Amino acid sequence: MSRYTQRELRQIDEFANFWMTREDAETERCEHCAAEPGQTCRDPDTDEPVRYPAHWIRIKTSEQRKDQT
User: Is the pLDDT of residue 1 over 70?
Assistant: First the structure.
């Protein structure tokens, strides 16, 4: 018997996916906000860090690069 409920396990899994996606995306430069590799994407209007893993174009680029290797 798990000490976590199914809902809690889903939340833990989603949190891990968030960070793995961000980590993968940060290997590439972002075409949308010009964040360099290793930097978090920022909102171009407010210069605040985004509240999601990265801009979609950066995620797509990193996934394509992973597929090539």
Answer: no
